[in-house]
Amino acid sequence: MDDQHFLESEWDYCLVLDACRYDVFSEVYDEYLDGTLEKRRSVGSSTPEWAYRTFTEEHDIAYFSGNPFINDLGIPLNELKWGASCDYEWSASNHISNVFDVWKSGWDDDLGTVPPDGIAEAFYNNQGAVEEADRTVLHYMQPHAPYLARGKGQKLKQIQKGIRKQEEAEQSEDGGGGALASLGDTIRPKVEDRLEGSELAQKAGLWLELDPTEVVTNGTREAAMALYEENLRIALESVADIVDDLDGTVIVTADHGEAFGEEGVWEHHIETYIPALMEVPWLEVE
């Protein structure tokens, strides 16, 4: 299995599916796209790590980001108070020429995430920037939770609102930390602080995105993976629509995978090098 070689590979457009496992992708992609699929090894097991290890110089890229960690705010990852939990002194604005914060402009409060249509809309509305850049990245949030069928996302909502509040606090120099009021936003950090790295803590985060009835009936893994595949299919439908308008070499890949209990790991965490998180698709679209 080759390394991902994200920037070293030849492409004009790269469509990044956040937290997309190779195995699930390989089972369903050909219902939506034609092309040559490879399994490649990512450089990181989470978005902050992937970004930090991928974009190390200055790159002329129009980057449409549904992920709040890749933003144009200029706040280093190690200073983000919400969600990053890493020591990486990296910010997208120092390495990527033009970042579009679709996690702001295309955010859907009901879904708790950026749906695929938000990425597409931002892309079509900024064709001038696309034409000026050497290459273009569209970073979709799916199949990453929250799962669109439920419309009750909590995890990304916490991160998105927290980063916004941090930005506002820093701009006003009042030192605010972006405290949030929702039950999920309150519980999750406390659970993770108390049980950092444990399987129970990781499951607690995932449970925020699931229907308790489905968890009881089918188990956490089965309930989550069914919704995960559905999220991937929703993303692939959007990708298939936009690919027809792209002139050049198009790649569909992922920043990292997603774990559903493999080796006691749930979701995705930095520097957790297991196959479920490190093996990603690399599809050259025909």
From TrEMBL:
SUPFAM superfamilies attached to this UniProt entry: Alkaline phosphatase-like
Protein name: Sulfatase
InterPro entries in UniProt: Alkaline_phosphatase_core_sf
Top-rank taxon, per record: Archaea
Residues covered by region (Disordered): 159-184
Organism expressing this protein natively: Natrinema hispanicum
